[in-house]
Amino acid sequence: MAPDLLALMGDTPLVRLDRLSHDVGPTLVAKLEMLNPGGSVKDRIGISMVEAAEAAGILKPGGTIVEPTSGNTGVGLAIVAARKGYRCVFVVPDKVSGEKVSLMRAYGAEVVVCPTAVEPEDPRSYYSVSDRLAAEPNAFKPNQYFNQANPQTHAFSTGPELWRQTGGRIDAFVAGVGTGGTVTGVGRYLKERKPDVTIVGADPEGSLYSGDTVRPYLVEGIGEDFWPETFDPDVVDVWERVSDAESFQMARRCAREEGILIGGSGGTALVAAHRFAATQPDDALIVVLLPDSGRGYLSKLYDETWMAEHGFNQPTAGKGNVGDVLEAKSSDRLPSLIHLHPGETVAAAIALLKEYGVSQMPVFAEAVHDDARTDDVLGSIRENALLDAALSDPGVMQRAIGEVMQPPLPTVSLDDPLGRVAAELAGGATALLARDGDRFVGVITRADVLEFLSARA
C-alpha cells in the first residue's frame, strides 16, 4: 500500500505497438506516461521541483507556487500542492484546451490565460505574466524551463526505468521536445550505458528546435520559440519535424487501432518514431514516450467540428491550399488585394474598410500600387485597433496611417496547406497575407477558410 498519491508517480509500463508498427521491421514500444496519477509525464517533475525548493528553503509553508505551463505541469504541481498545503497560480497560453484549464481548477489552482501570438518578452505573454506573479511575497516559481531538477528527474527515474524494462536492449528513444527535460535526462542516462543509442527529437512544424521558422502551431506542450536551459541539444541525434495534421491523425489512429487514448504531442512522437523505425534494421528496439492522455483534448483533436474548422478532417483538406481559398473568395466586387499607404489618413482607411466590408488591410510603401513585394510591406491596419485609437484620441482621424499602424500580417504562400493556415489563425493572427513567390496577391481571414471548407463539405 502506498503511503500517499505522490509515492505512485513513475514506474509507468511499456507496451508493444503492434498495430501501428505492422509496416516497419523494428519493434516499437510505448512508455505510457498517462498512467501517472496526474495523467502525464509532468507528474515526475512536479514533485521533484517542489521538494528541491523545500530542501533549499525557497518554498516555505503557506507559500504560493506560480508556473507558466501548457497544463500538464500545472496538474502535477497542483497534486503536490494539494498534499502539501500550498496555493497554486498557473499561467497558460490560450491554445491550451478547456479540459486542462478545468482540471487544474478542480485541484484548487487559480489559472490565468494569456495570448499565444505575442513574443516571450511581451508583458502579456505567459512567461512575462508568470514573472510578475512570482515577484509577489512568499511566491515560488519552479520554472520548468530553467530548473535543473527537470532533466535530473528523468536521469534518476525515467531513464533507469527504460533501461530496466528493456533489459538494456533499447536502441532508440523517441520523445517530443518541450522544455527538453525529458529528452535531456533520459538521453544522458541511456548514452552513459549504451553510447550508440539514438535519441530522436520529435518537433512540431513552427518550432525552432529542428531549425524551422518560428510560427504558431496547434500541438500543445512541445516545440519552442526559445532555447530553455533545461534542454541540452547535443543529446538529440536525429530530429523529425511533424505537422499538426500528421500529429492529430496519428493520435486518433492510436486510439482506434491500439486502444490507447493520447494527446496531440503523443501523435507527434509516434509519427517521428514510425519514420525513424522505417530506416532501422528489423531487430531494433525503439521506445517512444507518450506523455499524456487524450482526455484533455476531447474538445479539440477528438472533436469532429474542431477538426473540420481547422481543415484536418475534411475530404478536401489534404488538397486545399492558400491558392484554393483565394480563388474561391474572388469576386468582381472585391479587388484581389485591398491595401493602404502610410501617408493616407485614418479617416480614409476607415472609409476603405467600410466600402469593401473588410476588417484589416496591409500597409505598403508609398510607391507600391498593384504589385507589392516582400520588401514593400510596412505594417497593417485592423478595425479593432482603429476603434481603440479613435476612442482614446478624437483627433486621430486626420493622422497618417503610418503613425498608428500595427505590425505586418503573417505571410503564407499560395501552395501552403490549410493546416498551416489554420495554425496561424488559431495562434492569434487576425488575417494572413498571401504571396505568390515574392509578390503579394491577397488576404485570407478565418471567415474565408470556413466558407471554403463548408463549400467543399
How would you describe this protein?
The chain is an alpha/beta fold and 457 residues long. It folds into three domains: 5-41 and 149-302, 3-Layer(aba) Sandwich (Rossmann fold), CATH 3.40.50; 43-140, Rossmann fold (3-Layer(aba) Sandwich); 322-456, CBS-domain, CATH 3.10.580.10. Helices cover 35% and strands 17% of the residues. The protein has helices at 43-55, 72-84, 98-106, 126-134, 149-156, 158-165, 181-193, 244-258, 264-277, 304-309, 322-329, 346-356, 383-392, 401-404, 418-426, 446-456, and strands spanning 14-16, 27-32, 64-68, 87-93, 110-114, 139-140, 172-176, 198-204, 238-242, 285-290, 360-364, 377-382, 411-413, 431-436, 439-445. The strands form four sheets. The chain has a six-stranded mixed beta sheet with strand order 1-2-10-7-8-9. The chain is globular and about 75 Å long.
Question: How is this structure best summarized?
Answer:
This protein has 457 residues and is α/β, with parallel strands linked by helices. The chain contains 16 helices and 15 strands.
Determine Rg (CA atoms, Å): 24 Å
Shape: globular
Q: How many domains would you count in the coordinates?
A: 3
Bin the strand percentage: 15-25%
Examine the secondary-structure arrangement and name the CATH architecture of the largest domain.
Answer: 3-Layer(aba) Sandwich
Largest sheet data: 6 strands, mixed
Low-confidence segments: none
How many beta-strand elements? 15
- Helicity level: 25-40%
Span between termini: 54 Å
CATH topology of the largest domain: Rossmann fold
Overall pLDDT level: 87
Number of helical stretches of at least 4 residues: 16
In which order are the strands of the major sheet placed? 1-2-10-7-8-9
In terms of structural class, how would the helical and strand content be classed? Answer: alpha/beta
CATH class of the largest domain: Alpha Beta
